[in-house]
Each structure stands twice: as C-alpha cells, then as structure tokens.
From TrEMBL:
GO molecular function, one term: deaminase activity
Protein name, entry field: RidA family protein
Family matches, as InterPro entries: RidA (IPR006056), RidA_CS (IPR019897), RutC-like_sf (IPR035959), YjgF/YER057c/UK114 (IPR006175)
PANTHER family from the UniProt entry: 2-IMINOBUTANOATE/2-IMINOPROPANOATE DEAMINASE RIDA (PTHR11803), PROTEIN HMF1-RELATED (PTHR11803:SF58)
Pfam families: Ribonuc_L-PSP
CDD domains (alphabetical): YjgF_YER057c_UK114_family
Signal sequence annotation: none
Length: 127
C-alpha cells in the first residue's frame, strides 16, 4: 500500500517539513493541529477557543477524505496545562457530537507557537 498525502486549503498549511495527513489503506493519520486559522494566524483566546479551532482544522482534513470526526478511532491530545482539562473536554465532547474515540491526553511543557493545545487523529475511512 502506498501512502497518499491528504491536503486541504480549509486547514492551515504545515509549518514544517510534514503534511496535514497521510492515508494508508483505510486509515488516515493526521499531523498535529494547533489553533491556527486556515490562513495561518494564531487564534486569540483561551482553551475553549483554541480547542474549537484545532478541531475545526481536523474536521476540514477529515472532509478532504470524505469523512467526519465521527470516523475518528484514536485522538492524541497535547495540552499545555492539565488544570484546563475540563474546559478542553467540554469543547472536545461538543465537537465530536457524542462520538467517543479512544484518546490519550498528556500535559507538555511547550507547544509550537505557544499554543495551549495540539491534537492529532487516526481516522478509519472507506478503502
């Protein structure tokens, strides 16, 4: 199986030597998304606003594969301050509309562009 690069202008372009996502067979592996607008501007605001933008970006990447966040099988979350976990979790639950993927969440010392949150997904898609 050859990997296929997934790219959309509805999410920010990669800010380094990587792609937005790779598809291998029936799985899509996204790169971590931080709260950048599709134009590349950092979103102002706190954890809720940043989490919402990250998940909007990931929705756009999923849409580029003709799927939705509901096809997520695994989410990996990097969060700047675990004291903000409840606020993050509230937006995560809202954006996933009742879908509950497997998930890991870790607190990290620093994220690119001093973001408060970064999320990467593994999605199952039609092969």
């Amino acid at each position: 199986m050859n990997p296929t690069v997934i790219s959309t202008t509805q999410a920010p372009a990669a800010i380094g030597p990587y792609v937005q996502a790779m598809r291998v067979g029936g799985l899509v592996f996204t790169s971590g998304q931080i709260p950048l607008t599709p134009e590349g501007a950092m979103v102002e605001g706190g954890m809720a606003e940043q989490t919402r933008q990250v998940l909007e970006n990931l929705k756009a990447v999923a849409a580029a594969c003709d799927t939705t966040l509901a096809s997520t099988v695994k989410a990996t979350v990097f969060i700047k301050d675990m004291n903000r976990f409840a606020e993050f979790n509230s937006v995560f639950e809202e954006m996933f509309e009742g879908h509950k993927p497997a998930r890991s969440t870790v607190e990290v010392a620093r994220l690119p562009k001093d973001a408060l949150v970064e999320i990467e997904l593994i999605l199952a898609v039609e092969d």
